[in-house]
Amino acid sequence: MKQDVVKDLGLLALGTRLKRIGERLQAQTQAVLESAGVATPASHFPLLAALDRLGAMSVGELAEALGVSQPGVTRQLSNLQAEGLVQAQQSPDDLRSRTVDLTKAGKQLVARTKRSAWPTIEAAVTDACAADGKSLLALLTALEQALADESLCDRANRLSSGGKRRAAST
Q: Model-level pTM?
């Protein structure tokens, strides 16, 4: 049997394992999208969903809403603009800022995938998570908050200098 070193390393390699799971989910989500006739990369749908849910916003607001870097959002927006799914306009209030919104084609794509592909993808992920899906989401939320409260580097410094472990907060 092939040994899975990343799995065996446990929490030491958690970031690598989460990335590996994320890449697998992304690729399999892409396959589901393609079988539904959607060619847009799965990685673009959180951005499209944010614009659909929250309406037009600046690049910085989009980055904040998604919890990702502004350069990453800018790259995705360039691709989505080239596909005709989003449009960017100079903000009338701040000439340094652009406001981004879905185009008619972008709204149609989101509406179509919300009806067809998204429910199928969510059901498949729910099935893969079995009964632990809500627990998994709660743990991920707690981990994200803990890392926002104190970085891994700060925690490592505190612990290596004899500091105490923090009590779990839930």
A: 0.80
Query: Selecting from 2.60.120.10, 3.40.50.920, 1.10.10.10, 1.20.1180.10, what CATH number does the domain 40-115 have?
Result: 1.10.10.10
Tokens of 72: 């990453």
pLDDT band at 1 (very low <50, low <70, confident <90, very high): low
Q: What is the pLDDT of residues 32-50, one digit of tens each?
A: 999 999 999 999 999 999 9
Distance between CA atoms of residues 91 and 98, nearest Å: 5
**Could you state, in order of their start, the residue ranges of all structural domains in the chain?**
1-36, 40-115, 130-170
Q: Which of 34-38, 48-52, 92-96, 100-104 has the lowest mean pLDDT?
A: 92-96
